[in-house]
Write a structure and sequence with these properties.
This protein is of the alpha+beta class. It has one domain: Sufe protein. Chain: A, CATH 3.90.1010. The chain is built from four helices and three strands. It has a three-stranded antiparallel β-sheet. β1 and β2 form a beta hairpin. The protein is globular and about 70 Å long. The N and C termini lie far apart (72 Å).
């Protein structure tokens, strides 16, 4: 009986370890120039937008408002995505981006069942950051300022 209990306990422990190591929980795409963002574009203030490929390749959009190089507002355009799967994104992702001033720390599996949408948001956010004048070749003409 003890051997059977040990075998089951060991199998459960092993399965638990595999669950947390087999699937990546975070996609770290570099923000703009690949560095952690303290201040974007030498203290840029304004609005920039970007897009990325979400579920089934449909485009998602991100619009960022920056003040003195810090992200102060994040708007998500998820109109091309499946509605029941994207309700939590506008509540959960913007606070992370504003806190970190970056899209680098968003867990891809933040919302179960919508990994592709989250990847698209990260791609769109980094696209927007690359459009900031002085970052990734952006200019005023790129951001519609």
């Amino acid at each position: 009986m003890k051997k059977k209990f040990r075998a089951i306990s060991f199998a459960a422990l092993l399965l638990g370890c595999l669950m947390f190591t087999a699937c990546p929980t975070e996609l770290s795409l570099s923000g703009g120039d690949g560095r952690p963002a303290d201040a974007w574009g030498d203290g840029y203030s304004g609005t920039v937008s970007g897009s990325g490929a979400g579920y089934r390749g449909n485009r998602v959009g991100v619009t960022l408002t920056l003040e003195d190089g810090r992200i102060t507002n994040v708007e998500l355009d998820l109109s091309t995505q499946t509605a029941p799967f994207v309700r939590r994104h506008p509540r959960e992702i913007p606070p992370i981006v504003i806190r970190d001033n970056s899209f680098d720390n968003i867990p891809v599996q933040i919302i179960s069942g919508s990994t592709r949408t989250t990847e698209g948001i990260i791609e769109a956010g980094n696209d927007a950051l690359s459009r900031i004048p002085g970052v990734g070749g952006g200019s005023d003409a790129d951001c519609g300022c």
